[in-house]
Amino acid sequence: MCGILGYEGALQATPLIFKGLKQLSYRGYDSWGICAQTKKGLQTFKRVGDITKSNEPKFDSTKAIGHTRWATHGKVTQKNAHPHLNESGTIAVVHNGIIENADDLRLALEDEGYKFKSETDTEVIPHLLDYFAKRYDDHTALLKTLKHLKGSYAFLALLKGRLAFARDGSPLVIGLSNSGKFISSDIPSFLHHTRKTIVLEDGDWGFADEDRIYSGKEIVSRPARIESWDVEVAKKGTYPHFMLKEIEEQQMTIRKALNQDGRIKIAADLLSRSEVYILGCGTSYNTGAIASYELAKAGIRAIPSLASEFEPHLPFINEDSIIIALSQSGETKDVIDAVREAKKKQAKIISIVNTPGSTLARGADIHIPMKSGPEICVLSTKSATAQLAILSLLTHEIENKSPDLLREAAACAPHVIAQTKRVAKQLAKKLKDTRSIFTIGRGPLAPLAREAALKIKEVSYIHAEGMPAGELKHGPIALIEPGVPVIVFADSNTRTLTISNALEVKARGAYVIGIDSKNHPAYDTHIQIPDIEEATPMLALLPIQLLSYYLALERGCDPDKPRNLAKSVTVR
Ligand code: G6P
Prior knowledge:
This protein is an alpha/beta fold. Helix content is about 35%, strand content about 25%. It folds into three domains: about 5-225, Glutamine Phosphoribosylpyrophosphate, subunit 1, domain 1; about 240-400, 3-Layer(aba) Sandwich (Rossmann fold); about 410-560, Rossmann fold, CATH 3.40.50. It contains 15 helices and 25 strands. An eight-stranded antiparallel β-sheet has the order 3-2-4-1-10-9-11-15, with helices on one face. Helix 3 crosses helix 4, helix 7 (about 265-270) packs across helix 11 (about 380-400) and helix 11 runs antiparallel to helix 15 (about 535-555). The longest helix has 28 residues, at about 405-430. The protein starts with a strand and ends in an 18-residue tail after the last helix. The structure holds 6-O-phosphono-alpha-D-glucopyranose.
């Protein structure tokens, strides 16, 4: 949700920022902009639309900041695109987050004679910096500005020729390379230059030309670390889209996710003694809900909750509660806020997160890494199966069962991807003009059906609704008419009842697609997947990811950057 990137060093800055912003554009692609410190002063270039479709601005500069936007305050226009500058054009700011008291600050600044050009909350920052910079030294001006800001932010500023940074509530990480310093929302933007990083904490601020990092008035120590992410994984290579690449990578990533250390045992011990809540948003919520069935079988009552709707559970959270926080990015604000509330009540946090150094990876009592490598496509694919693999591993540990079955499932993934590709392509051609798709399943395959519908709608813009198969007859069946596609997920535990529901829609003319280890006359199209007991949902996701991908292509949609979405949602 908005990506920011700054560079100061020996190299030409604009090409680095331009290239890095492209890597960050999964965080938002409504507009983009770069501001460079040049001999002639600050020079700015902004455009509406996706940076990957634009030409690079040419500025002679070794210090610059850039932004790729997911609009929150103000329409998608060039005026609202970042960087935002003070009136004299000497201070520039790029920002990720929301300044909640922006309206009050704006009124106060307007009273002081400041004139605003955009509708954004961000624009108060350069004006505030301007106000204080006229009265104080750089450090004091920045610190005083921070004291006035309420909300969440990570921002970079070009302030009197210096590159300043600050974070509170939105991610910011420094990349230390031999040629200079990068400061970014996310590691992939500078991964091709360095893997040496310093992850900033909330409240941190400073200037790129100093080695000191401050929190309030104190100098703080933030150790550097070497990231394990491989730069090649953040590249598309020969694939037409990251989505397809990341779907195919599941041949390895499921296996990697299963390769965990002693933390699984510690987490399993904690879980078996407590009341458990599984939190997530979007796909991460769905995978948590799928896993809750398996945990229940192992005797663990794990309550799945959307992080944004966690409040009703809060009165029941205490020191005996365990929160499993699921998040690919580790920066989803809804999850972070829910975890914070739970922590206040002494709950223990187990986070299952993909992005190293992210807020949720660092803020947990036990952090289990997904090990999927950078996931660049906005849609969660390899991170979803990694989450399922890890949650199953946890359940196996609780039950003292060997994880062999999960390894068997991981070994099946390449076969499932290869086998279902052709049929997914054909189906996409057939379904490309359909208005609605329904997806149904029972037990863990019910939240799986919801995840399938989410995948289809977010990437192809076809209306899709996923529900427990038993609920279909309580309302949604009214929408079934001849030709409406219904995707049915079934396995050996749920088949008998689910097939009854499939027959009910078939009797009303629905076009039934069965994702099942066995074929059945109810299915007009059958996509065969192996039935590997509790690992079946993980494999059932693969054909649906492929179908969604090919539907997007058939309909001319960009699978990596669906409209209006952002990969990392750092606002509530
Ligand atoms: C956004 C993305 C979804 C993702 C959700 C949760 O809404 O568009 O694809 O599932 O965030 O992200 P997380 O990083 O917390 O797993």
